[in-house]
Amino acid sequence: MSTSSTDTSHPNLGEEKAHIGPERHSSDKSDDEFDRTKSEDVTYAPINSPGPHNEGSAPLQKQRSNASKSVTSRSLERSWSLNDGISIGGHEVDEAAVANEDEAYTVGWEENDPMNPRNMSKARRWLVVIIVSMGSLCVTCASSIYTTTYAQLMSEFGCSQEVATLGLSFFIWGLGIGPLFLSPLSETMIIARFFSGLSGSAFLSVAGGTVGDMFDRHELAFPMMLYTASPFVGPEVGPLVGGFINAFTTWRWTFYVLLIWSGVMLASIIFLVPETYHPVLLRRKAEKLRQETGDERWKAPIEKLQRSVSQTVLLSMKRPVLLLALEPMCLCLCIFSAILLGILYLFFGAFQLVFSEVYGLVIWQRGLCFLGLFVGMVIAILSDPFWRRNYVRLERNHEKATKKLDDFQPEWRLPPAILGGPLVTIGLFIFAWTIYPNVHWIAPIIGSAVFGAGTILVYSGIFTFLVDAYPTFAASALAANSFTRSSFGGIFPLFGMQMYHNLGYNWATSLLAFLTLVMTPFPYLFFRYGSWIRSKSRFAKSQA
């Protein structure tokens, strides 16, 4: 059954509440009180309308659900599952229009509704998960596989390594932040890389939502873990594959392989991946009902929005900037994750330099050196069940101490980042001080594995914390994170080679380690004091 009474937030900074649904809560109850109260779900009987001239039968009789949930838990579930088509938080709604609307004609999901993507067969849903995960792997692999073409590009086009590196930077900038207005550059390769990243960003923007649309919260953990692993594993696969391609053929085959791969993914998406976005599907359902019954009162929640596309785009651009400017937690955690991505992409050039000059490895052997990062990240991903058990433990301890149920604290998401921070620093120091010809090459690779594991743990903690701490503005918080990560990810490779040449391999990597050391305390500080900080926030949800 679809829930038709929901708590959504007005987009203005005053956080005025707007309610859509048949039940109206009294105005004398504050928002804070409302968030802590239990309210019964309002559900509707299956839609079977007799038409506009036979209203007496009341086809949609309001029924009380036996299940009772808190508004808080529903909000969190919708943050996880991205959109259920009912919640339209963050959008302006014309209150007068809603009040005058016959709300029995608001279209929602029925039990076992065939149009609901969560009712697709398990095999179909997992096929979609695999396709979007492979597509994400393809997009992110395309970012790093380019680094294996540097030598051939510099030889064929007579450019410096700094210019060749721009192809990596522009891809990342295009991937994360859209069009950039930098100094004019006419090189076809660099411009093409930018538009490749820009195109890939569209896929990465919606693929996670596709996974969330198809699974309920209790089913979501494993498919989401599989999907979220792909953008991190992809960059390590790139040099591994690219090393063999560029060792035995020309650099052009690097892009031919990507073209073939992306072509297969495009065909798979077109023919095998259905529309899963709940608001769009409910709009289609409402249109079908209006056609069948001739009754124009059937409306989907998204059809009640009172904002133009241009207003929505401008607001979407403004909120991430406001979060970075006004939210210290969001800013610090975004900078931490941005530094890690910057170091990761700097490594794609540094590995080629270090393992060729210190250990004399050829290009395909240097590609294999990225297996350390790959293995470390996979180990961290496989630790996910442990962190979920830890989350449950923190929840139960909190319930025993406070006697409150469904009192979720976003800070419980941060323990992976608390452990990951020191691992990142330790891994970088191991890498820095084992880069010697008389030390076996496996030693720095082990250091990179520790760094890779720590990076995944930090990202896992930060991403889930941002979603839970800013449930109404989760998309904006993640967009702010994407903006900072893309900026750092594109900039770091531009100065990485000069830094390694001028400071030496040991101290250059140590400088990066000290940079992460400065950021390491923040997840712990926010774990301890985050609830108090959120209570002072204009954007974050506090349950302190």
UniProtKB/TrEMBL annotation:
Polar residues composition-biased segments: 1-11, 60-76
Annotated Gene Ontology cellular components are: plasma membrane
Disordered: annotated span: 1-76
Q: How does it sit in the membrane?
A: Multi-pass membrane protein
Name by which UniProt lists this protein:
Major facilitator superfamily (MFS) profile domain-containing protein
Q: Which GO molecular function annotation, any one, does this entry have?
A: transmembrane transporter activity
Q: Does the keyword Kinase apply?
A: no
**CDD domains in the record:** MFS_Tpo1_MDR_like
**Species per Swiss-Prot/TrEMBL record:** Penicillium polonicum
Compositional bias of type Basic and acidic residues: which residue ranges? 13-41
Q: Where in the cell is it found?
A: Cell membrane
Source lineage: Eukaryota, Fungi, Dikarya, Ascomycota, Pezizomycotina
**Keywords linked to the UniProt accession:** Membrane, Transmembrane, Transmembrane helix
Q: Which family does it belong to?
A: Belongs to the major facilitator superfamily.
For this UniProt entry, which segments traverse the membrane? Answer: 126-151, 163-182, 194-215, 253-274, 321-351, 363-383, 414-435, 441-466, 507-527
